[in-house]
Design brief:
It is a single chain. The chain is mainly α. Helices cover 66% and strands 0% of the residues. The protein has helices at 3-21, 25-38, 40-54, 87-100, 104-114, 121-151. Helix 1 runs parallel beside helix 3, helix 2 packs across helix 6 (121-151) and helix 3 crosses helix 4. 26% of the residues are buried.
Length: 158
């Protein structure tokens, strides 16, 4: 991993999010590829940057001031389980929840499980799918935050 890449990673993520917000999710996702391919460390840092973006402005929902992963069936509205989600979405949801709860051991374990067989084509595909799922969540979260700021400018500091 080069120092130059680490220094530019936040700028690449910002540009990828800007492109995603502008409707070019493919182009934004392509910007993330070098960070995914660079090293496990760089890819983990990318996941953390995306998780941090997703959790901006989110409040804990649990009784212990913890963030809770709630899954709901979109067709029935019934509560579900993270195990009901596709693998990439399951990783992203669990990673973000662990990050929000400041559980670094869990975020590392989730990432290590995702990247366990990175030397195989299937393993690379799982990492790409997991990161792109985080990226999609980050775009959706940024969009919701921007909409909240537009419709309620008096709440911008909160």
């Amino acid at each position: 991993m080069g120092t130059e890449r680490s220094a530019t990673a936040p700028m690449l993520v910002t540009e990828a999010l800007n492109r995603g917000l502008a409707g070019d999710t493919y182009g934004g996702g392509v910007l993330l590829v070098p960070l995914i391919e660079d090293s496990r460390r760089e890819c983990y840092a990318l996941c953390v940057m995306l998780a941090a973006t997703i959790t901006i402005g989110v409040e804990p929902q649990g009784s212990d001031d913890l963030y809770v992963l709630r899954v709901q069936d979109v067709l029935t509205g019934e509560p579900g389980s993270a195990d009901d989600l596709p693998p990439a979405a399951k990783f992203a949801a669990q990673f973000v929840t662990a990050w929000a709860n400041q559980d670094e051991a869990a975020t590392k374990a989730l990432f290590d499980a995702l990247a366990a067989d990175v030397e195989t084509e299937a393993g690379v595909g799982r990492i790409v799918d997991g990161v792109l799922s985080l990226y999609g969540m980050a775009i959706a979260s940024a969009r919701a935050l921007l909409e909240e700021q537009r419709t309620h400018p008096d709440r911008q500091g909160n």
